[in-house]
Amino acid sequence: MGKIILALSLMASFAYAELKWASSYEAALTQAKKEKKKVMLMLSRENCPACEYMSDIVFEENAVINEVHKNFIPVHIDIHNDFIPEGLGYMGTPTFHFLDANGKKIGRYDGAANIPSFIGILGKYKK
To answer: What DSSP letter does each residue of 2-39 carry, written as one string?
Structure first.
C-alpha cells in the first residue's frame, strides 16, 4: 500500500510541475556552469498577449517544462523593470535568447510558439 501511495504522490508532483526560473541573469549563468547546461532567457513585458500565452499555456505543459529543466536554466527579464544584458536586444516580446554557460549567444527566437513548435526550438538549441 505504501508503494502505491508513493507512486501516486510522484505522479501528482509531475502533473503539477512548474517551470523554475532563475532569480537573475547572473544566477542563471552561475547555475548553468555548475550544471553544465545552457541558458534560456525570455525577454517580456506586462500586458503582452504573446508573453502571457507562453506563460499560461506553453510553460504550463509538462513536456515543455521537462525539456527546459533537462537542458536549460531559464531566466525571465521584464524589459521595462529589469536590466537587459548587453547584446541581448529585442524588437518585440517575447524574445528568447539561448546562451551557453558563459553568456555567449547561440541562438534567438522572436515571438510566441505553440507547444510542439517550442519543443522543436528547444531541441534546436540544446545541442
So the answer is: HHHHHHHHHHHHHHT-----BSSHHHHHHHHHHHT-EE
pLDDT digits (tens, 9 = 90+) for 55-96: 999 999 999 999 999 999 999 999 999 999 999 999 999 999
Q: Position of cell 507562453?
A: 54
Distance CA 15, CA 7 (A): 12
Distance of CA 118 to the CA centre of its chain: 10
The structure's pTM equals 0.86
Count other Cβ atoms within 10 Å, centred on residue 118: 22
Residue 110, judged by CB atoms within 10 A of its CB (0-12, 13-18, 19+), counts as middle
Give the contacts of 108 (CB within 8 A, at least 6 positions apart): 95, 96, 97, 98
Give the DSSP H/E element, type plus range, for residue 55. Answer: helix 49-56
